[in-house]
Design brief:
By secondary structure, the protein is α/β, with parallel strands linked by helices. Helix 4 runs parallel beside helix 5. The radius of gyration is 16 Å and the shape is globular. 39% of the residues are buried.
Amino acid sequence: MKYCLSLAEGSQEELCTLVAEEPFVELRCDLLGCNTDGVRHLTEGARRAIITCHNSTDSKSVYMAAIEAGCWAVDVDTERAATSLREVVEMAKGRGVRVILSRHFDYTPTPEELQRHTHTAFEMGADIAKIITTATTTAEALVPLTLYRKEWSGSVVAFAMGEAGRFSRRLSLILGAPYTYVCHPSKGATAV
């Protein structure tokens, strides 16, 4: 299961069908407008689901509901969910749910800065550190790929967004990412 289908739009009926059919999905609850009941229902119907709420003000309750429903992982943005991060991580760990701690950049930081963020994610309890940059050139798109090191093998997902960074998603799999994200052909992309 190297490809995770990221879902950010669709009716409840469409989403229920997709999560039941697809082997691995990411539910962007912030973009789907999921409340706790909605995320519980979708999570229970999924084979393997990552739940994320990057832009939600009520992310803690959504994460808790998803963990209780048995999601595969929660993806918590370390910048946006700082106040509830520890509680979500503790609950997830206590229930055997993987913790993905992510950081998204609208530019390309230095390799050293990305390494610091990756180390910090693991220190905060991440099972998987997800580092996403935005590239305007091929050289910038290669920078997050420097995070694929032996000591982090299979526990880092790093690539660049933007037209110049598209190739880095596939290349990340070759370098050791446990999976990468794809969008449904008939649904909108959650990120370019």
